[in-house]
Amino acid sequence: MTESAAAERDPEAVSRFVESFAAQLVEAGVPRMPARVFAALLASDTGTLTSAELGERLRISPAAVSGAVRYLAQVHLVSREREPGSRRERYRVHSDQWYEALTNREAIIKRWEDAMREGVVSLGADTPAGRRLAETLAFFEFIEADVANIMERWRLHREQLFPKNGSEHRDPAGSAD
């Protein structure tokens, strides 16, 4: 998008998108403030904003921004960057944020698998609780295998849609812009 096209963008429409998408994230279990900050970052052309910019856009306090960014960084949806020659930080959402978040979830699933295995041994595989944990473990193992396959398929699909050279961008329908 060109700068003139960005200037023509309706700020109210952008705000409605941010709040609407944030509401969807909240519905899925993301805390409200991190959801709003994440949506605001996604809606910014650069994908980076300072605490002050986020506070101004969302009409929230610096403390609210800080807490939201801390949460988002922990779940690998944003990163913090220092502005060169400044103590000010910028917060960035990357184009591969969903991939990173799912990859992080994959590590969590592995830890849950380990806990379930220990639980099955501790509770006894023949007890009702042990069988329930064994079924949960089998589910996690099943999901883990599919996630690895899906992530590899996504990498290949993404390379086709969004070539690395940056000079060409394709929309999901396949036409170049």
Short structural summary:
The chain is mainly α and 177 residues long.
Main sheet makeup: 3 strands, antiparallel
Major sheet: arrangement of strands = 1-3-2
Proportion in β-strands: 5-15%
Q: List the total number of helices.
A: 7
What is the H-and-E element order? Answer: HHHEHHEEHH
Characterise this structure.
This protein is mainly alpha-helical and 177 residues long. The protein has helices at residues 3-8, 11-27, 32-43, 51-58, 62-74, 97-123, 128-161; strands spanning 48-50, 79-82, 89-92. A hairpin with a 6-residue loop joins strand 2 and strand 3 (89-92). Strands 1-3-2 form a three-stranded antiparallel β-sheet.
Write the layout of secondary structure elements.
Blueprint: H1 3-8, H2 11-27, H3 32-43, E1 48-50, H4 51-58, H5 62-74, E2 79-82, E3 89-92, H6 97-123, H7 128-161
Antiparallel strand pairs: 1-3, 2-3
